[in-house]
Design brief:
Length: 234
């Protein structure tokens, strides 16, 4: 078994253990493998271990990978900041966008999504701790933004995403995830058909699973530490 297979195997064990420990139904946490800055060969290895759901932050890099691996059997998720001049290729190529944080971007994605494709799955990125350096909408803006996005026929609003501050302390890690889950529950109580809480990375996936994550986004613990921006090779 190569390193990526072994890493994935221990990651599945960690996910399973966390599901049991925090009374989550087995299989309720999906794994999104974050492949930004990773080579074609690394992706090929993750694919051969049975992964098909990949997250990318940079459009050009993602397009090169999509051209290599296709979009048929693979599910590509855009998780980086969305610039308004990139909405057309993003809407054309991806199955999901986790990082929508304003209406203008949602409208542009909606307008660019081809009628022949299924609606583009959307998560609203929330700046849950109100950090000046982070993108994402505030919790207060969520109900209004969700209501507007629900009217866009080429988008399917699936849930919420957050990227909280890093912490080594488990209790501190849980707090922002709990706040995001509360915001999610309030929207669901208002009949928004949400099913996705995209939260948790390599350093805090257990805390995210404890607080109800349905999709965790993992790069480092699949591929190893990233040594700067690797060029997209072969
Ligand atoms: C890079 C990235 C991840 C993966 O983080 P790791 O710590 O490598 O697991 C998850 N989400 C987003 C938005 C990212 O940019």
């Amino acid at each position: 078994m190569n390193t990526i297979h072994m890493n994935l195997k221990s990651l599945w064990d960690r996910i399973h253990t966390a599901e049991l420990r925090f009374h989550r139904p087995p299989g309720s946490v999906k794994l999104l493998v974050v492949s930004k800055n990773r080579s074609m060969e690394e992706i090929r290895e993750a694919l051969s271990a049975g992964q098909y759901r990949f997250g990318e932050n940079y459009l050009q890099e993602a397009i090169t990978k999509m051209d290599t691996f296709g979009t048929g059997d693979l599910e590509w998720h855009f998780i980086g900041p969305v610039q308004s001049n990139k909405t057309r290729p993003i809407a054309a190529r991806f199955a999901w966008v986790h990082s929508v944080d304003r209406l203008k971007i949602a409208q542009r994605l909606n307008d660019a999504r081809a009628p022949g494709l299924p609606p583009l799955n959307i998560c609203l990125q929330v700046n849950i701790c109100d950090e000046a350096s982070k993108s994402g909408t505030g919790v207060e803006q969520l109900p209004g933004l969700a209501a507007e996005i629900l009217r866009l026929p080429r988008l399917a609003l699936r849930g919420l995403m957050t990227m909280p501050p890093l912490s080594d302390d488990f209790t501190a890690q849980r707090m922002p995830f709990r706040l995001l889950h509360e915001a999610y529950s309030r929207l669901r109580a208002e009949s928004y058909p949400l099913d996705t809480l995209s939260m948790g990375t390599s350093s805090d996936l257990e805390a995210a699973i404890a607080e109800g994550a349905t999709m965790i986004r993992i790069g480092t613990d699949v591929f190893g530490a990233c040594h700067g921006a690797a060029p997209v090779d072969n």
